[in-house]
Amino acid sequence: MSRNIMEYETVELDEQEGGILIIDQTKLPGKTEIIRLRTAQEIWDAIYLLKVRGAPAIGVTAAFGIYVLAREIAETGKLSGDEKDAGKFADWEVFYEKFTEQKNYLDSARPTAVNLSWALNRMDGVCRSAHEEGKTVEEILEILHEEACRIKEEDIQVCRAIGEYGLSLVKPGDGILTHCNAGQLATCKYGTATAPIYLGQERGYGFRVFADETRPLLQGARLTAYELHSAGVDVTLICDNMSAMVMKNGWVNAVFVGCDRVAANGDAANKIGTSVVAAVAKRYGVPFYVCAPTSTIDLATPTGAEIKIEQRPSEEVTEMWYKERMAPEGVKVFNPAFDVTDNELITAIVTENGIARAPFGESLREMCGRGR
Ligand code: MRU
């Protein structure tokens, strides 16, 4: 019997064979294929091509990725070639120069989800502090390993805490709408936007969930509908242009979405189309909740206007998923991967440290401070 998708790890370090194991999410739901990433190019491609995606999962992959690359640098980094150096680790200067190079390379894979640079900077921070404390490169590798594993473990706990806070905002039998995939497949367990749904499921809440299909890459159809359905949640798939109708019909009591970067004023970047859902929710009086670990809150970015939005290839809109091209050759295409929801459309931002409400400038600072 085939394994349920909920039993797989989204991202895993292979301690025995080396490298990182991920589910290739571009193949879901048709095929569950686990792939191994070993080189910087493989890790970068997997993030850019969305084989692993979703802000927290990207962060965990980057943390494991830089650890795997650090080990490689330390073990094979430019030693003199002399016999006396056999089996030695590279010295600190050589090691750190290469480490920084690889860190910057991984960081360039996708620009919008702040968790990518957040995780890499955290790994860089422990690396430098360990050196300042006089640790050897060999010891630093162990510290990097522990930190990457901690980032993964924290992700699971953070998602669960978001789930508890999110669950306090809804009641049994509610209708919940979500956009894109901020689910288990976007994190290491529970998801962010789906965490209240999974916790509610454990407690018999009987939610009715609507999953937007999420053009152009169909994360809602391929991933959210798939994982919720596999977990036995009552989920109904809708096209993106149907959310107004289900909200007008009174079928939705709350919208929960994930997030890639929250600016200091509460403007929140998430999958393209999220801001449309927020505007429609406002129109029909449905509360709109953004679920965001504090690692997704970027207090250094003042407003959504400063968030860099990733632009993706036009083929994703014109031909991907279709048997034949569905747009005229040469037509202009605009394909931003994310949009920014203005803070005034957001009812609350649910973090692992509590629920932030307007004015977000203050409440987000407080949420970030609580974790320290
Ligand atoms: O392009 P993707 O699939 O990486 O976009 C994912 C999203 O927009 C998610 O909602 C976001 O990263 C939060 S995941 C918990």
β-strand amount: 5-15%
Small molecules in complex: 5-S-methyl-1-O-phosphono-5-thio-D-ribulose
Q: What is the domain tally?
A: 2
Which CATH class of the largest domain? Alpha Beta
The largest sheet is: 7 strands, mixed
Q: Which of globular, elongated, flat, extended, rod-shaped describes the shape?
A: globular
Q: What would CATH call the architecture of the largest domain?
A: 3-Layer(aba) Sandwich
| N- and C-termini, Cα separation | 45 Å
Report the uncertain regions: none
Strand order in the sheet with the most strands:
6-5-4-7-10-13-14
Descriptive account of the structure:
- This protein is of the alpha/beta class and about 375 residues long.
- The protein folds into two domains: about 5-160, translation initiation factor eif-2b, domain 1 (Four Helix Bundle (Hemerythrin (Met), subunit A)), CATH 1.20.120; about 160-370, Translation initiation factor eif-2b, domain 2 (Rossmann fold).
- About 40% of the residues lie in helices and about 15% in strands.
- It contains eleven helices and 14 strands.
- It has helices spanning about 40-50, 55-75, 90-105, 115-130, 135-165, 195-200, 220-230, 245-250, 275-285, 315-320, 360-370, and strands spanning about 10-15, 20-25, 35, 175-180, 210, 235-240, 255, 260-265, 270, 290, 295-300, 340, 350, 355.
- The protein has a seven-stranded mixed beta sheet. Strands 11-8-9-12 form a four-stranded mixed beta sheet, covered by helices on one side. Strands 1-2-3 form a three-stranded antiparallel beta sheet.
- A hairpin with a 4-residue loop joins strand 8 and strand 9 (about 270).
- It is globular, with a radius of gyration of 21 Å.
- The mean pLDDT is about 95.
- It binds 5-S-methyl-1-O-phosphono-5-thio-D-ribulose (MRU).
